[in-house]
Design brief:
Blueprint: E1 7-10, E2 14-17, H1 21-28, H2 30-33, H3 55-75, H4 82-93, H5 104-110, H6 116-130, H7 136-142, H8 149-155, H9 161-174, H10 183-188, E3 190-193, E4 196-200, H11 204-222, H12 225-246, H13 255-262, H14 270-276, H15 281-291, H16 297-307, E5 313-317, H17 323-337, E6 347-353, E7 364-366, E8 372-374, E9 391-398
Parallel strand pairs: 4-7
Antiparallel strand pairs: 1-2, 3-4, 5-9, 6-9, 7-8
Helix pairs in contact: 1-4, 3-4, 3-9, 4-7, 4-8, 5-12, 9-11, 12-16, 15-16
Length: about 400
């Protein structure tokens, strides 16, 4: 009989235990193995060469942190059944199962705005049937409907194990030390009060460090101007390809990608889901390599930008760009390339970030007297009060080939 209680060596967390056989069976399933071919951070490796880790890595790390968190809570006297522990670990293991190629960038293009969480739930329903209902508890937690709220919060909140893993993991693989957090310290401060997840008051600075690290990672890594540009280009490439196909133009693509390029807008069918589970980053990369040579100038230009890493020029600002400046760039683009649709190659990209949302599942601190207070109301907090305002950046992108004089804005 096969031993399914394996130990996995992870570069971020060390040894990861698989304490239940059902977890091993899910990890071995083709739906989950596909995550080995879905990058965790899209095209971030164009900026940070080490960022080649996958959703597979992240899901295992999040499962490990969930196990650690639940063991910590049990030691503090919180009653957690084996079924609940198993359910929470399955839920977090599968929380990204619905991610498509290059994750967030393309989910709206391929599945017509079906969010990856919706797809995750549909795939979990399929797996639940295959595993004889063993995922029922996990699905309740994933949907946020489980009667003990702290399980839902560990899976999805402003301080969930998903964020704890991806911050530490992305910091590790990008080499951006500002995103490094002490996950063990944060988890050791977790507690439960009235069935809600809280943090022991003495952990206030660890939580502020977590929020600060997340803010730095967004502006320094995830919303880096070149990262935002490359993600934007992926969307425009697929958008352009779908437009060309709708006009009857043949484009080379793998069978499953071609299916989604030709797919009409409709609710997801069984065939859609089956095709989706066979799609990964490789399909998109292969297509872009082929489409570099497409007759359509816009599509071929964008694909060359990504594949050859000869990306368009960018200017960043904290305010929207002057429409006259944008119009000037469009005119320069038309003149340089001898085209009349230069507006397709000049765009303004916008990114917003609210580091800490005081309304959406606020973080609570548990005081020694058993009372809980919101993080931003604590007398000990130093930074939380400064992270409740949205910050915004605007990025203007235009062809790098334009004459140098046009780059001095």
């Amino acid at each position: 009989m096969q031993n399914k209680l394996k130990i996995i060596n992870d570069p971020v967390h060390g040894f990861i235990r698989i304490p239940y056989e059902i977890l091993f069976d899910i990890i071995e399933h083709p739906y989950f193995q596909r995550l080995r071919r879905i990058g965790q951070t899209g095209l971030l490796n164009l900026i940070f060469p080490g960022a080649t880790h996958t959703r597979f890595h992240h899901a295992l790390g999040a499962m490990h942190l969930m196990f650690t968190a639940l063991e910590t809570l049990k030691q503090k006297g919180v009653k957690i059944s084996e079924n609940e522990e198993k359910g929470a670990m399955i839920a977090i293991l599968l929380h990204d199962i619905g991610h498509g190629p290059f994750s967030h960038a393309l989910e709206s293009m391929l599945m017509d705005n079906w969010h990856h969480e919706t797809l995750s739930l549909l795939l979990m329903e399929r797996l639940n049937r295959q595993f004889g209902g063993e995922l029922s508890c996990a699905m309740e937690m994933f949907k946020g409907k489980y009667h003990r709220k702290f399980f839902n919060q560990l899976i999805s909140s402003q301080l969930d194990v998903d964020r704890l893993d991806y911050l530490k993991r992305d910091s590790f693989f990008t080499g951006v030390s500002e995103g490094s957090i002490n996950t063990q310290r944060i988890i050791s401060m977790m507690n439960v009060c009235e069935e809600e997840l809280v943090i022991d008051a003495k952990g206030v600075y660890s939580i502020e460090n977590f929020l600060t690290a997340r803010m730095f990672m967004y502006w320094q890594v995830y919303y880096h101007k070149t990262a935002a540009l490359s993600e934007f280009l992926l969307v425009k490439i697929l958008e352009r390809a779908k437009l060309l196909v709708s006009r009857g133009i043949e484009l080379p693509a793998t069978e499953n990608l071609k299916y989604f390029l030709y797919r009409e807008k409709t609710s997801a069918t069984d065939e859609d889901l089956e095709r989706f589970t066979k799609l990964d980053d490789n399909d998109i990369i292969q297509a872009m390599k082929e489409w570099q040579h497409a007759e359509d100038m816009i599509l071929s230009y964008w694909c060359r930008c990504v594949i050859q890493r000869n990306l368009p020029k960018t200017i960043i600002s904290s305010h929207p760009f002057n429409p006259e400046l944008i119009a000037g760039k469009v005119k320069d683009t038309n003149n340089f390339f001898g085209i009349d649709n230069g507006n397709e190659l000049v765009h303004e990209i916008k990114r917003k970030l609210l580091p800490y949302d005081t309304e959406k599942q606020p973080i609570y601190l548990l005081q020694k007297d058993g009372q809980k207070i919101r993080l931003e109301e604590s007398e000990d907090q130093l930074l939380s009060g400064l992270m409740v305002n949205k910050t915004e950046r605007h990025i203007l992108t235009f062809p790098r080939e334009l004459p140098f004089r046009n780059l001095k804005e």
